[in-house]
Design a protein that fits this description.
about 650 residues; alpha+beta; about 25% helix
Length: about 650
């Protein structure tokens, strides 16, 4: 093999996948070109590349999805090839054709594979000709509702309705009987049309308690097609993968061979080239029976688990195949060693229904002893413009039990301060008995009880109190008190120094008490929001703290992260009285922003009478809309306007009792 398949490669993506591709390019001595939107001007992938080009404003449609801007950057930089990563333009056949027309190599499959596998209905019909098993279903293209109903009766209920052009679970509807079909069809068409501009539907037999198993394939332009084993991607929330592992705990060698052969047949049927993933549905009670779902014609988010168990760098293989080199390895060269598990770390708030989070990362530290592919570092800004995944933590062990334990340890050691994440939820999920025993299905997460933030530990409370000026916590407002009283030293006449009890507020409004250790630590403001504390004086080893612009102290202690605020006596009393008043009232009048985002709609006029449950404001963040509704009847006072950028918990409106 040649040392460098290309001299210069442009990475048409952002975040952790851009950094991961750049890492392999650097190892191979290939010059890397990054592209960035205005929101990503200071992003890590921009600094790590050898050169970077601006391609537009923050909106993805005007930057990372702008094929013309990306091609212009490739030409200006002298790039011979473009690596699209995943998402954005990675499966866009039109962009691949534009690259070919410009004489630039698209690091991905050929146009035929993109065209055929990019359509769920067409891909199913196509692979069936190669003997790949598919779920019994109905192509609803051109059919009337009556004809669909007749076909559904022949296939049998329950059925799953899926938009043919879509992904990510949007528009999917479960139909358990003929009576539910008309409404489900109407809903699926409406969502599909709005999300994808195409209301073509596909109906499939619903596999109860399914497992999601996918096979990594790799093919070259010389006719070689191999697979690199399977990945279990069953743990999903709202059809989005959360935890992935390789190999699957339920796939035996015989089934692995059959899965691999089916995946390779699907890839060969479209003369596939490069890295791809063939996805299958497996019945939980019949793991030897599998059905083709679709083929993803790109690198997958979860590719690191395959890399850890096979030892192959999939990005390097992509580069070499795209350059026309033979694959250089055969099926006999693929051996699975141990077990690997990946957890996706999202900027979101699980205790608030997994609402997306945004803000500045005040402190970031990856765990030692595990692989972390991250999009952020200390000082990075997480915006509402893109997908909320900020990192992937991947652990490898000699077996599944060891990999699970190492992943939990790594998540406990991962420090993210300044922005909420799902790390606590991930650790709870890994500890679930069904997950520990590999008894999985795609509905497992949805059946779990709602996630609640853990109660802050004593170490976390002490840390939150320690970074606040202790004298401020007890100083009276007047000037009559003596300097000794104002010092907050804890001195008592004829008695030992008493510990100072500090009230600490949690985001849900609870007030907890903790003694402030003495002697007090020396504290000063550090860069980027860090609060510097004298080592060993007040914070336990391994504890990290940072203070955000709103005055909240973020604490990582004993494997958990908390957002806390130490209160002085007056503040503690005010919060206690407010909590009592709120308990006695029907509902609090203030409507707060559930997350940072943009106000896209104000549904009522200032001063209007509103009813309980009426939509008042809509916030958009991470490509999703979130309504804020009236908690009770009353008069609305609007505090914001359409277009405003709001912080989490910012007051959007008030609904007060109608004087009439």
């Amino acid at each position: 093999m040649a040392d460098r398949p290309f001299q210069t490669v442009l990475v048409a993506n952002r975040g952790e996948i851009a950094r991961r591709v750049i890492r392999t390019l650097r190892r191979l001595g290939i010059r890397s070109i990054a592209v960035y939107s205005d929101a990503d001007a200071d992003a890590p992938h921009v600094r790590e590349a050898d050169a970077a080009y601006r391609i537009g404003p923050a909106a993805a449609a005007q930057s990372y999805l702008d094929g013309a801007a990306i091609l212009a950057a490739a030409k200006d930089s002298g790039a011979q090839a473009i690596h699209p990563g995943y998402g954005f333009l990675s499966e866009n056949a039109e962009f691949a054709r534009a690259c070919a027309d410009a004489g630039i190599v698209f690091i991905g499959p050929g146009e035929r594979a993109l065209d055929v596998m990019g359509d769920k209905i067409r891909s199913k019909a196509h692979v069936t000709l190669s003997g790949v098993p598919v779920v019994p279903g109905i192509d609803a293209t051109g059919l009337t509702d009556a004809e669909i109903a007749d076909a559904a009766a022949r296939v049998g209920y329950p059925l799953l309705i899926k938009p043919s052009a879509g992904g990510g679970g949007k528009g999917m509807q479960v139909v358990r009987g003929a009576g539910e079909l008309p409404d489900a069809l109407a809903t699926a068409r409406r969502v599909a049309s709005a999300a994808f501009g195409d209301d073509t539907l596909l109906l499939e037999r619903l596999i109860e308690r399914p497992r999601h198993i996918e096979v990594q394939v790799m093919a070259d332009g010389h006719g070689a097609v191999i697979h690199l084993g399977e990945r279990e991607c069953t743990l999903q929330r709202r059809h989005q993968k959360v935890i992935e592992e390789a190999p699957s705990p339920v796939v035996d060698p015989a089934t692995r061979k059959r899965l691999g052969e089916a995946a390779c047949a699907a890839a060969a049927s479209v003369e596939y080239r490069g890295a791809g993933t063939v996805e299958f549905l497996v019945a939980a009670d019949r793991p030897d029976e599998f059905f083709f779902i679709e083929m993803n014609t790109r690198l997958q988010v979860e590719h690191p688990v395959t890399e850890l168990v096979t030892g192959f760098d999939l990005v390097e293989l992509q580069l070499r195949v795209a350059a026309g080199e033979p694959l250089g390895i055969g099926q006999a060269d693929v051996h699975l060693s141990g077990h690997a598990i990946e957890a996706r770390v999202y900027a979101e708030t699980p205790a608030r229904g997994f609402l997306p989070a945004a803000g500045t990362i005040l402190a970031w530290r990856a765990a030692e002893g595990a692989r972390t592919d991250s999009a952020v570092e200390s000082g990075s800004t997480v915006t509402a413009d893109y997908d909320p995944m900020i990192a992937k933590v991947i652990a490898h062990g000699v077996d599944r039990a060891e990999a699970l334990a190492r992943l939990d340890d790594a998540l406990a050691e991962t420090v993210v301060l300044g922005v909420d994440t799902n790390i606590g939820f991930l650790r709870n999920l890994l500890a679930d008995d069904a997950v520990q025993h590999g008894d999985l299905d795609t509905g497992l997460i949805d059946r779990l009880p709602p996630y609640e933030d853990p109660t802050p530990s004593a170490a976390a409370l002490r840390s939150a109190a320690a970074v606040v000026d202790g004298s401020r916590l007890v100083r009276p407002q007047g000037g009559a008190a003596s300097p000794l009283w104002r010092s907050g030293s804890g001195w008592r006449l004829g008695a030992a120094v008493a510990p100072l009890e500090v009230a600490v507020l949690t985001p849900d409004g609870s007030i907890l008490s903790t003694p402030l250790p003495r002697p007090r630590p020396a504290v000063h403001a550090g860069s980027g929001g860090w609060a510097a504390v004298a080592p060993g004086r007040a914070l336990a080893p391994g504890t990290d703290v940072a203070i955000d612009d709103d005055g909240w102290t973020w604490v990582h202690a004993e494997g958990a992260t908390h957002r806390l605020r130490a209160l002085d006596r007056r503040e503690a009393m005010e919060h206690a009285l407010a909590a009592r008043d709120q308990t006695s009232a029907a509902a609090h009048p203030e409507l707060l922003a559930p997350m940072p985002g943009a106000v896209v709609a104000v549904h009522v006029a200032d001063g209007a009478r509103v009813a309980a449950g009426e939509r008042i404001v809509t916030i958009e963040a991470m490509k999703m809309e979130h309504p804020v509704i009236a908690p009770h009847d009353g008069i609305a006072t609007i505090e914001i306007a359409v277009g405003d950028q709001v912080r989490r918990d910012q007051i959007l409106a008030r609904v007060t009792a109608d004087p009439a």
